[in-house]
């Protein structure tokens, strides 16, 4: 902006942003050097290189903490000269939501990932022993890529990263042109920007304080088994990497799974779609690496126990980390667009994110290749990267479009050629000479279970990646809905549950058939009997759902029996079975709460709120669904729902910055067939009439042991277009003398008067009784007379429910003695059609949904025990 080049900007804390930039540069340079020294030590073994690598990584970690502190200080002290603070925070946020807005933006998310990687790196310095240099070199390379996301280096259109310390006036120079700055001066723009844009209302929930850090910790832990796999190929160590990789893969599966479920619980508590999982592409992006890491952990366990399937272990471990990077690309490149309700917009980093992913795929291929093949791959890769850039500058503009298509085709073809080459070389490097697996061996059935997890991933990956395929090939394929996922995943989950129920009864390599069949017969009988009871108890119908239920119960009972018979009171060894048991309970809860979900506010006739025909006269299925699944509740009028009677009692509007929020009180009563009350409770759903996002509904849920009653407001009467008052009439009235509105349908009576002498003069409030043909109520018009009697002010009182407004135009004091109340009031009245306050409420019953959360807790506890047991085993191996 030309006019502000030499402008002095006042009250900016530039030193704080500069400090943040310094920490960012230190973090980047130190990890580049640390990675170099770790790499050199891994190749040459010089002890001084190891010391430098350690020290520089520690400096890098301290710099990350410095960036963290500076960015939070900018948010905490409301320094809106910085774009990040202005965009994501506001003055009214409590501290815990300031933490949430820290990682609402992309830069904060990358910083959180960097922080967890740094913590993990410091732990690895202590525990990785002989693997430190090779493993930390890989972790360091990941830190280089992540640190580059925060550099914020710009030359023309060329951009590396996006800095959280950029200034508001640099990111939004148009703000300096707003008219009000003509009065204050451009240099004093902070006098205008005293508050920030604020945190997304949907994220103002306590679960969003802990869900993202947990999820990113899960993402961060995926680098460790990947690093061990790469280091093993690099060092040609076939099996030494398996024990630490197994421990860290279990850590990743446990933490990432917990983070995913936390996200589901946040959605259930805060969003109004009525559930905890919608198969949204962003949700799927976190599920994909979890699925493949779960399969990888089981394959690593097989390889560690038998030496088999090293190829599959390496590939799945590496694929899991690639999917973490792919998930990051999907959610933060903007490629999902409208396909997801909560994807990030593109900050211009999509190319950098893609390069991040491709770089780690290339690392896998480089360490897998050997000799001349590695050299050829490195040079051809660099050629494919550099040549399109050079040609883009050399070719004339009229050839650029066709050139881009050619480059895209060559890039896609090269990617698949390299991927096939990688798989081919990896297979031949890791294959072993083993006899065929026995059908009565544990590894056979664990391998089969892992393959079904991969099939589950394939379906999720293909559907979630549709926006990517559309972008690459110009397709216009629609993203599938939740029902499409459910139909396929239902059947893929069943063999997984069956294998989780029976595989642990087998032993590695070979199992005694007599003992095995005796155990399998027992669990089959118990599982089927309890499954049949479950069908009756949970009222499940439909072949697929019944089979799912039986297998889920079989999974639960089988693992419970295995703990009781084989492990007894040795609770430290319960880990794997407890995790499987929890997973079975979780899936059981998913089935029952989904299949038997009951919309208590549904009706055949429906309501008339949403249009059921679109602009072209075609049937609008969404409108029909809305009208059939919601009910209108008029204030203080009981309304019958399925199983309950609901009454909208009241609402409270927030104050100040909370004024756009409304808190409703709705009472529920459950009566038996004899009309006696068997249960009652109150819920408090919330709405926010957000000027940027429209009506945002926050549900309110009543929790029972065996069910949840989930409620949310989809519409409320204040959103209706207001009819103005009309038919005004003026009357001169006295106390207790009824008078009527213009239509004569409403009768008003001045019942009493309230007087108050204040600093502004005499305040008079009338208590006016109002009675119509169908209802009655009270109005309280006010009249203020200034202290010197020179002016007066009238404040009207209105009731939409009664359809009347009245105001005091003037008054006549006939007798100065207040006790006689000999006063006449000149009152104006107006009328309109009476409108009752109402809300449009949806009520859903989720039976046995607590099984989902209980299963999660048990599953995570199982992972904790399993991890601790594996750590203990690894220490015992080292001691021997």
Largest sheet: 6 strands, antiparallel
Multimeric state? single chain
Tell me the distance between the termini: 71 Å
Strand percentage lies at 15-25%
Q: What is the averaged pLDDT score?
A: 87
Give Rg in angstroms: 34 Å
If helices are DSSP runs of H or I spanning 4 or more residues, what is the number of helices? 24
Question: Roughly what percent helix?
Answer: 40-55%
Please state the structural category: alpha+beta
Name the overall outline. Answer: globular
* Total count of strands: 23
Low-pLDDT runs = 1-6
Written overview of the protein:
The strands form five sheets. Strands 5, 6, 7, 8, 9 and 10 form a six-stranded antiparallel β-sheet that branches. The protein starts with 13 loop residues before the first helix and ends with a helix. The chain is an alpha+beta fold and about 900 residues long. About 40% of the residues are buried. About 55% of the residues lie in helices and about 15% in strands. β1 (about 155) and β2 form a beta hairpin. The radius of gyration is 34 Å and the shape is globular.
